[in-house]
Structures are given as C-alpha cells and as structure tokens.
Amino acid sequence: MGKKYLEKNVLEATIERLHIMFENFNNIYFSFSGGKDSSVMIQLANKVAKEMNKKFDVLFIDLEAQYRYTIEHVEELKQLSQVRDFYHIALPIALRNAVSVLQPKWICWEEESKHLWIRNMPEDSININNCPFPWFKKGEEFEEFILQFAEWYQKKYKETVACGIGIRTDESLNRFRTIAFQEKKITFQGNNWTTKLKVNDRHIDVYNFYPIYDWRAEDIWGAVSKLDLQFNYIYELMYKNGVSIYEQRLCQPYGDDQRNGLDQFKALEYDTWGKVLNRVNRCQFRKYLL
Q1: Would you say 277 and 287 are in contact if contact means Cβ atoms under 8 Å apart?
Q2: What would you report as the CA-atom Rg of the chain, rounded to the nearest whole angstrom?
Q3: Residues in Cβ contact with 252 at an 8 Å cutoff, skipping those fewer than 6 apart
Q4: Nearest to 22 by CA among 78, 64, 84
Q5: Model pLDDT for residues 203-258, shown as the tens digit of each residue
Q6: Which residues pair with 86 in a beta bridge?
Q7: pLDDT tens-digit profile of 93-145?
Q8: What is the full DSSP assignment across 64-128?
Q9: DSSP assignment string, 166-224
Q10: What is the helix (H) or strand (E) element at residue 160, kind and residue range?
Q11: CA atoms of 16 and 48, how far apart (whole Å)
Q12: Which residues lie below 8 Å from residue 132, measured CB to CB, with a gap of 6+?
C-alpha cells in the first residue's frame, strides 16, 4: 500500500496521544529506564498533564549497575511537577549474566552481595526491607516483575489504568510487530499504538500505550533541543567517545548484547568501571580481552 503521510509531525501526534491517555484514564504510570526515549516521553507527558491539571506515576526499576549520570537524571525527573508517585524499585531481581557460563544470572541489590554493590541503596527506594508487594520473591525475572506490577497497580486503583512505554519501532522488528498487527491484540479505541496487557494468557484491565512509537533518534534529540528538555548526560559522553546516536544504549551491562559495551564504563565512568568488573562472576576476566 505504500507509506501514508499525515499532516502532522511526530511531536504533534504524540501530544494528541498523551491527551487521549489523560482524557480517558484517572490513573496512569509511565515506565522509565533512565534513557533518552522514556525521558522525553515522560517530560512531554508532564507538559500535557500540567495543561490538563492531571497527575501521573512513574515506574523506574533500578538495576544497580547504572551509570552515575543515569541516577542523577532519575533524580531530576522525580522533581517534575505532575509526578504523583515515583516507584524507585531497588529489589533483588534476576538479570542475565552473559559474561560467565558458571553464573548465568546475577541478582541486583542482593543482600548477600552487599559488599560488592556498585552503588549504595537509594534512600527513597522500594527495597527488600520495605517492599509493599506481597507477591514479590527474591530472584524474580525482570519481565515477570513488570507484569506483576501492572496487575498490582490496577488492583490498587480498582479501575482500568494505562501504562506509557517509551519504545520506538525503528529499533527492532519485534517492537514494530508489537505495534503494527492489530488483529492479534486488543487495542484501546482502535488505536494500534495501544495494547491490552495479558498476564498468564488472561487480559487484565491495563492498556500499554506507546506514544513515541514512530519517532526516530533524530526526533528524540530534536525535541530535547527544541523544547529544552532535561537529558541524561551520559549520552553526551557516549557521543564524544565515538558512539553514534543510533547505537547508544542504556542497559544492565552483563546481557548478551550489552557485554560488548562493557568497555564504555571504562571510558565514561572509570570509578564505576572497577565496581562493575568485580560485581559478577568472571567479569574480571573480560578486562584482559577489552
């Protein structure tokens, strides 16, 4: 059928999508990674929410092995005017460890490994000592936690809720498929950039919204510049270190793809680098290969 061109740009389209969210839902939370995409999404949501006199919540899962600048940016966004509750999660969640066949997973914020923690526990975090989630068990998978949190949030407010997710489909085919194929999902009001969430093959009253799904990397940085948005300074350092705007990623450093970028910690935050090397089994060995 070819491309369809609309008489609006992606920024205008996203503002419209955010209006739909705030017009139809009383309780909304946005998933935040600390990265550029979700950061722009949340700051745009704050602008719309302020105009409409609305509030929203933010979910940030702290994976411990984070850049210092990422955490500084998280603290910046906690101060946004329309944020109601900021769920800063620092629970012992299981994550992939692709640097070792002896320890295929590692657990962030694990009490037994406190002497190896890359950072101190954030003071305002939800952690194992104050966890309000009766369903949480140490060593849960990241993906499992995301679904359980969504169900918990919906039950807390006892009505249909919305979750904003800052993914862009130009980064992967799977992301494109999530958005594009309506016949395989339930959408909100027929909008293909929404998906009703399923937990254990049953739908729950939570809709995922993807308000920036059609943006490109250029659009993200264009919005930061045009609207004078806050951003994670680690991206500036990545760019100066020769990483293009299309290859910049923020993830826990020991994953299958992320391990190839372990040396970025060495170049960008040397103090953090030493702690990253000592945090998981066999990671030290990689320093002789990088």
Answers
A1: yes
A2: 19
A3: 63, 64, 65, 95, 96, 108, 258
A4: 84
A5: 999 999 999 999 999 999 999 999 999 999 999 998 888 888 888 877 767 765 55
A6: 58
A7: 999 887 767 778 889 999 999 999 999 999 999 999 999 999 999 999 999 99
A8: S---HHHHHHHHHHTT-TTEEEEEEE---EEEE-TT-SS-SEEETT-GGGGGG-SSPPPTT-B-T
A9: ---GGG-HHHHHHHH-GGGS--BTTBTTEEEEEETTEEEEEEEE-TTTT--HHHHHHHH
A10: none
A11: 9
A12: 126
What pLDDT does residue 277 have?
81
* Residue 290: predicted pLDDT: 43
Per the CB < 8 A criterion, the answer to whether 30 and 59 are in contact is yes
Q: In which element (H, E) is residue 241 found?
A: none
Residue-level pLDDT at 285: 47
Round to whole Å and give the CA distance between 197 and 186.
8
At residue 2, φ and ψ (nearest 5 deg) are 80, 175
**Tokens in use for 21?**
């969210």
Query: Do the beta carbons of residue 57 and residue 85 sit within 8 Å?
Result: yes
Residue 105 burial (CB count, 10 A): 15
Distance CA 53, CA 126 (A): 27
